[in-house]
Amino acid sequence: MQTEHQEYYVPDQSYFPIVASIALFCLAFGSGSVLTAAENSGDMGMITLLIGFLMLLFIIISWFSKVADESRLGLYSKQMDKSFRWGMGWFISSEVMFFAAFFGALFYIRVLAVPWLAGEGDKGVSHMLWEGFVNQWPLMTTPDPSLFKGPEKVVDPWHIPLLNTILLVTSSLTLTMSHKALKLDKRIATSIWLALTVILGGVFLYFQVVEYHEAYTELGLTLASGVYGSTFFILTGFHGLHVTIGTLMLLCMLVRVLEGEFSGKKHFAFEAVAWYWHFVDVVWIGLFIFVYIL
Amino acid sequence: MTTDTEQSIAADMQHDAKDHQADHHHGPAKGITRWLFTTNHKDIGTMYLWFSLAMFMTGGCMALLVRMELFQPGLQLMQPDFFNQMTTMHGLIMVFGAVMPAFVGLANWMIPMMIGAPDMALPRLNNWSFWILPFAFSMMLMTLLMEGGAPNFGWTFYAPLSTTFAPPSVTFFIFAVHMMGISSIMGAINVIVTILNMRPKGMIMMKLPLFVWTWLITAFLLILVMPVLAGVVTMMLMDIHFDTSFFNAAGGGDPVLFQHVFWFFGHPEVYIMILPAFGIVSEIIPTFARKKLFGYSSMVYATSSIAFLSFIVWAHHMFTVGIPLAGELFFMYATMLIAVPTGVKVFNWVATMFKGSMTFETPMLFAVAFVVLFSIGGFSGLMLAIAPADFQYHDTYFVVAHFHYVLVPGSVFSIMAAAYYWLPKWTGNYYNEKMGKLHFWLSFVGINITFFPMHFVGLAGMPRRVPDYALQFADFNAVSSVGAFLFGFSQLLFIYNVVSCIRNKNPATAEVWEDAKGLEWTIPSPAPYHTFTTPPKID
Amino acid sequence: MKLLSSAKMATGLAKAQLTLLLAFTVPSVSADWQLNMREGVTEISRSVYSLHMIIFWVCVVIAIVVFGVMLWSVVYHRKSRGAKAENFHENVYVEIAWTVIPIIILIGMAVPATATLKKMYDSSESDLDIQITGYQWKWRYQYLESGVDFFSSLATPIEQIQGKSEKTENYLLEVDNPLVIPLGKKVRFLITANDVIHSWWVPDFAVKKDAIPGFINESWVRAEKTGIYRGQCAELCGKDHGFMPIVVEVKSEADYQIWIKNQQLAQVEKAKSAEKRWTLDELMVAGKEIYTKNCAACHQASGEGVPGAFPALKGSPIVQGDPAAHIDIVLNGKAGTAMQAFSDQLSATELAAVITYERNAWGDSLGDIISPSQIAKLKQ
Ligand code: HEA
Ligand code: HEA
Ligand code: CUA
Ligand SMILES: [Cu+2]
After folding, report:
1. Residue C202's beta-bridge partner residues?
2. In chain B, which residues have pLDDT < 50?
3. Closest Cβ opposite residue B251 in set A2, A28, A148
4. Cβ–Cβ of C83/B350 closer than 8 Å?
5. Strand C128-135, strand C187-193: pairing
6. What's the CA gap between C218 and C309, in Å, rounded?
7. Mean per-residue pLDDT, A45-50
8. Whole-angstrom Cα distance, residue B390 to residue B382?
9. Which residue of C has its CA nearest to B257?
């Protein structure tokens, strides 16, 4: 978009980026050490990991509040506002591709790999190596149960998952209501709808935890129970992570609204979070259909 | 702003903002913090470029170790496992550490100056994208010192060699890749936003310089494939540490799944490494042919179709893994198609030179060499695309020859061309033309001595990624190794040229090259710390 | 159309290029300086070869034209020659032309390629099925009909590799037991792997298929000439990827039958040898040989292993401790590690020998003998 030019705000020097990079390094190196128990003192790694995490947390908070201040100071032109919008938009599309990778894996496994192993399709000869393995989904018995014991049962889509679907969809609605209210500068309505959204997000997460707990304790459905468990947990897991982040961000928005920030015209932070939340919602629909129902 | 209170705040903040802006024009901060904390696209560009050079040296030295081992049959210098580590690290470092950062550095320096923007759209994010890299790569290099050694499973890290059978350091490798991914994605977002949102009035899309166009499209590729890479290494991590079975048939998974996901990233990745190069060449050739680029719009469309096609050809890296016939055919056809838009570009460059009035300063020499040698690489690529023939080529040195022709005299030459082309603008001094030409000719000869014979040993049946080989491959390998050292050491000249260009005063005009077109040539050399803070008039 | 005319002249300039490239087609006289792909000894390999040559010449011709025009302008349209730049910079017709012509060329290329690929994929109606399994770092061949089953690994002595002795003709391309197939019969390969991905490649057959653990890829060959054909593993499979060659011996039908018979007899012999009672020394001698061939690659001849990669056997609790555990890990391997199950790789005697060797070599001799018969029982 070509635009009439206002002074485009180029921020002063900032220590955020370099510190954030160090934080990432500690986080990564720490986790690595913990996982590999390298330099055979796991807690050393754990400490690095925590330091990294705290540093990152600190930076995120101060970075965002700095941006908030700058926008309060009116340093941001319309053009800047648009930069943020484009930025957020493309960030979300990269997130979409991240999930696409896992969905792709799921489809490949279900449509090609498992049937081949079970003697169907172009590479059916492979069945020679897995006598007695049959094509089924959910995959209750893996090709080699001695290594990967299949789940006894799988999550029933029509209980918690259905509930969660309803929760998330409503949360998207309530969030939209809140946004509408904000546009009209109806602050109370805004905060009520927003608070509702946060709660719905929280409840969703609670049920997700319950579901995982059941999966591990009652259904014998774990990361280790073959490729069904693998795809199930990686997809729902990363989605859960995103919901968590989303909820936290919504919470921040709620706080800022209560502090009387944002105006009917100028509230990009709010919108960005809203986009993110809707994206997470859409991903869930995909999960509900392809992971739980089908 | 709406309410009057805000209005009033805004008012006095505005002028506060003004002198905010003002103190920007004072130029760079003093001391190290200038580099650590900077938000200036030129500083960040510079850091990217130096980083890339350092990585190029590192990866290059590893390559030379590889060449030394391969100088003659038998195990001379190193154990096979260490050889594999060298091959792997060489590939990873050159791809992610040398070529990609170099292009991002050029983007940082040039895109704002080419479209007439004051800076990149998101300056702090920009600096973060850079600073992640040194940390990511130090972690990557640390693996060399770890028990069990560095990653040794090739830069394509196929499972299960990279999961169940990998050295412990693979975990750190995975996290390093995650960090690079974050860096690239943020960098790409910045580029896109800058190009789409920071253009002054009159700079319509179809007026954008081709370097900007190609980078825009590259950035889209990055955003769409980097997350997929992150996804696949994450699955590896799970398989290694959390007992999942994505890539393990015993649990219902499939090792080939890894390859599909990896190459869905991997093939676009290789175009990420060439599209900006196309852009650079399309800037340089018109300047030194003193003739407008032939077929500007077709260049844009060609680039876009290459980008599009690059998403549906990935399995041409997997012709031998036993893909069902239909798939094999589809990917063969799609891959062959890419020759068409690429061809259009090559033809356009030639047509630009045709009936021009050419001079051959160093950038032009590199650009012309690019056209020829990249095409040779492209031709071998096309041969590889013929699936039945690929059964003979696959995983032999013929492939190694192919991709070095497109990457070294392709990507790397374009980067050197760009460096010589824009150095006067960056430093305010002309580089030493004689030395530049010398550097070019040594590199040109070195390259071909190194990589042309690889076609022959490849066809004769020498597999890649082997530390030792049968006797009939000996002669050509010796030649390759000699060439490698020639090329390698010639790069010392490049370093010398750059440094002396910064040091020695040989003031360059604003235009630098005889009536060069483009906004970057309208501003003085060296380019002031802040450019186009007020947008230029575009006619 | 100026383009074309100058292109003609350009061919002159490109003559030199051509002669260089012709080098490709010269059939290699000596093995050294071999330039081109082998034509091979099967219908498939020959059609692959011709595809290779067609696409190659297509590229050469296009290169000559394109580079020709470029060189022409580089020479004649330079400023130093007073060339004035013209200012044409667009021509829809040329653009269309050089979009369409390549497409046509490529279609012309795709047709024969498709045909060949179809043939390669049709492994039906085979006369003989052989299952090929890639191991780190050797190949296993199982004749599904006749039950012949053996491993094939590098025969080049380590001294040659380390340069301690003269390298012989088939350096790195020689194995202990080659795969033997009959002349003129359609042999179907069922290719898979036991640990990581390998790739079974014999250039003269134009057969290269990846060996994927847990999956089976099919390929086939109908050899038209008796003789010995050599290839190598073509997928990075760990440290000794460069040292797992493939040798195929194509025998006449009659000779092949004889060979099969002998193989079957030999297998019976092996089984018998288990009953014989062995002395410690005998086992140690046999064991050392088997150890160097099968175990030393990872655990090293010294038994000290490779820190971080392969555990040491010297002084390891398993080797020192209860024989049962030791036998178990050798026979059944350790899931999820590079330690393979050797029970089907080695005969009872060989297993007994190698385990005995491990328990007594490297100073820490426990003096205990693992008897072949004992293993033989376990194997049932
Ligand atoms: C900059 C990077 C780059 C570029 C631009 C390309 C470009 C191409 N590559 Fe390459 N490729 C790699 C980097 C690159 N490649 C790498 C790194 C690998 C190895 C990865 C690994 O395994 O480690 C690889 C491997 C690779 C393979 C797998 C080989 C194997 O492992 O068996 C194949 C197979 O199809 C292939 C094909 C192509 C094709 C068709 C093009 C086309 O884009 C080329 C198009 C260009 C031309 C054709 C020349 C100019 C055109 C004309 C003059 C017009 C007229 C021409 C005709 C009509 C013929 N490449
Ligand atoms: C852009 C990417 C890029 C670049 C620039 C290069 C550059 C070079 N590459 Fe490589 N290469 C790859 C990407 C690249 N490569 C990839 C992706 C692989 C596959 C890896 C795999 O199989 O997994 C590969 C694999 C590969 C192999 C095959 C290894 C194997 O299969 O076992 C070989 C063998 O010769 C090789 C050689 C070289 C050489 C000699 C150079 C030379 O051009 C390098 C010259 C540069 C320098 C020498 C550094 C600069 C020198 C100085 C600053 C002077 C001072 C220093 C000294 C003189 C020591 N490369
Ligand atoms: Cu087996 Cu490479
Ligand atoms: Cu590719």
Report:
1. C207
2. 1-24
3. A148
4. no
5. parallel
6. 33
7. 90
8. 10
9. C212
